[in-house]
Design goal:
By secondary structure, the chain is mostly helical. The protein has 2 domains: 1-51; 54-146, no CATH class. It is built from 5 helices and no strands. The protein has helices at 3-18, 59-84, 91-112, 114-119, 122-146. The structure holds zinc ion. Residues 25, 27-28, 30, 40, 42-43, 45 line the site of zinc ion (ZN).
Amino acid sequence: MPETASRDSDETLLEGFLRDRDCPCPICQYNLRGLAGATCPECGSPPHLSLNSPNTRVGPFVLALAPLLMIGGVGVLLLIAIARHPQALSEGLQVPMAAGALSLLTAAWLLFRRTRFLCLSREAQSAAALAAWSAFLFACGWAASML
Ligand SMILES: [Zn+2]
């Protein structure tokens, strides 16, 4: 479809959608009900219709990724410390290094498969984020007990 025809079609769809609906302008909150034209009469921004899903909100994705990266970061710091002082390697440090490596692999998998994660239900996304934070808190508790 040529771009001009597509734009006209989008504008027609937008006008039809707003004909009998109260919808605030996403920029200035002006009520766009009965909008005639392609721009908000209050602020001049060009609103458009889009298809969206609540699953595409990145909050749970970031919440799931953050603790994995933090655990992985600790593992990397331990690896650097051991590389600089190899005599410090003890059996007690192998577990946090393994947890860090596992967390980084999980974070990489999550980044690589983010589309699959976003296709999960909101409840499943929240459960995954909760599981990641539980692992993080468990790791923190375990580390604290080693001190
Ligand atoms: Zn506006």
